[in-house]
Amino acid sequence: MMMPAANEAVERYNEQLDWQTLEPITREQLSHYTGSDGGNIYVAIRGLVYDVSENRDKYGPEKPYHVFVGKDSTRLLGLNKLRLGNGAARYDACGRSADPGYPEHSTFYTDDFGEKEHNAVNKWEEYFRKRYPIVKVLVDATSNDR
Predict the structure, then answer these.
(1) 52-88 confidence digits (pLDDT tens)
(2) Which of 59, 84, 78 is nearest to 69 (CA)?
(3) CATH superfamily of 5-131
(4) Is residue 140 pLDDT above 90, yes or no?
(5) In angstroms, how far is CA 63 from the centroid of its own chain?
(6) Greatest Cα-to-Cα distance within the chain, rounded to the nearest angstrom
(7) Alpha helices in 52-104 (DSSP H)
């Protein structure tokens, strides 16, 4: 199946992008890119920020994948979950654990990932790189985020 030309252009753009030239963004700043004010919608994976605004019908407020926006959602994607734990949010708007003693409650924590989870994240990264432009890089991301 051929991908639409727009996706090919985005994929080519992402392949040629020098990540070191990307504008930095903090987790706090990223948490404001949720589309709730009609603005851009960003999702981060392993510290790279993708602009998913063109797919507002899936990532916008009240939409199925809105849980991933405004934060680095690496852990959620690696575990193929929309929520961590028992469904109650255990992380703040930036995706950080509400309890520092439980880093696995962060949406970006991957220290406990095995091969299966890392492979899942790799597939999601590939999916996003083919469809959405990389627009920023998290500056307070840990080396584990990438």
Answers:
(1) 999 999 999 999 999 999 999 998 899 888 876 655 5
(2) 59
(3) Cytochrome b5-like heme/steroid binding domain (3.10.120.10)
(4) no
(5) 16
(6) 47
(7) 56-59, 74-78
